[in-house]
Specification:
The chain has about 170 residues and is of the alpha+beta class. It is built from five helices and nine strands, in the order βααβαβββαβαβββ. It has a seven-stranded mixed beta sheet with strand order 1-3-4-5-6-9-7, sandwiched between helices. The chain has a two-stranded antiparallel sheet with strand order 2-8.
Length: about 170
């Protein structure tokens, strides 16, 4: 089941996101950033802050009571930004990510958005290709990764984001 997360979900979301992106646990899945960044992907304070921002929601994928997937969505103009997309690394590649992506796109339509956009680390070619197979296109933008919050990780080398976008029907 996919539902909107609440601030009471912060500890579980924090555990999920960090396990999917960083450290040895992330290596069980295919979305790891462990070879690119050290440290954490987020922390509980940053997650709590997301719930205070207008036009920002987090969707969660539940297996019973356990959160096994999430995605953060932020409306800006006629676009919905997709970020912090995570699936439990032990069950990645089972279709949960696809269901979360479709739910995010449905949310964009509910909010009358014309497109979805996101930034992805340029070196994450397997992830970029997955998004492309799901209708996203590179917009030609490169943005330097800014690390203004140590809870977001410590780069092991110079990294930059590329922007992907999907226009909704």
């Amino acid at each position: 089941m996919i539902a909107k997360a609440t601030v009471t979900d912060v500890p579980a979301l924090n555990k999920l996101v960090n396990s999917a992106y960083r450290g040895d646990s992330s290596r069980k899945g295919w979305t790891t950033e462990a070879d690119l960044l050290d440290g954490t992907r987020t922390d509980e304070q940053a997650l709590r802050d997301f719930f205070l921002k207008p036009d920002s929601i987090i969707l969660k994928y539940l297996d019973g009571e356990k959160i096994i997937g999430c995605v953060r969505l932020v409306k800006h103009g006629s676009q919905l930004y997709l970020g912090m997309f995570a699936v439990d690394p032990t069950i990645q590649n089972t279709g949960i990510g696809k269901k979360m992506l479709l739910a995010a796109e449905d949310e964009a339509r509910k909010q009358n958005c014309k497109s979805m956009d996101m930034t992805v680390i340029s070196e994450r070619t397997e992830l970029i290709n997955w998004y492309k197979r799901n209708g996203y296109v590179e917009m030609g933008e490169k943005k330097p990764m800014v690390f203004d919050n140590p809870s977001g990780g410590i780069p092991k080398k110079d990294l930059y984001f590329i922007t992907l976008e999907k226009f909704l029907d």
